[in-house]
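Progress report, Aim 2. The chain analyzed during this reporting quarter is listed below.
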Amino acid sequence: MSFAAAAPADHAGNLEKLVFHAIISDGLHTSTHGFFKATLADADGITVTGRVLDDGWDLIPGGAARATYGFALPAGFVPTRLVLIEVASDLPPTAP
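Predicted structure tokens for the chain:
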């Protein structure tokens, strides 16, 4: 996974644009499609939610998928934590 500054043309006002790229893989034996909710938090617990910049991920058995999220950060925001929560998947839920 990596973070990169957005292109200069994508910056507006006093917001800093940041793009998060990830490669996702797992040991499932079935194909699946879904996406995550991506949130950045700073040391004070202030959070900024990212926006999905692609069509979600498609995982095939033994494969990997790419995911991309964009963040608009207020001036002075210094992220210290990234939280990813799966919010959509075409697989049925499993029992706890």
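The chain has one domain: 2-6+13-88. The longest strand covers residues 32-42. These observations will guide the mutagenesis work planned for the next reporting period.
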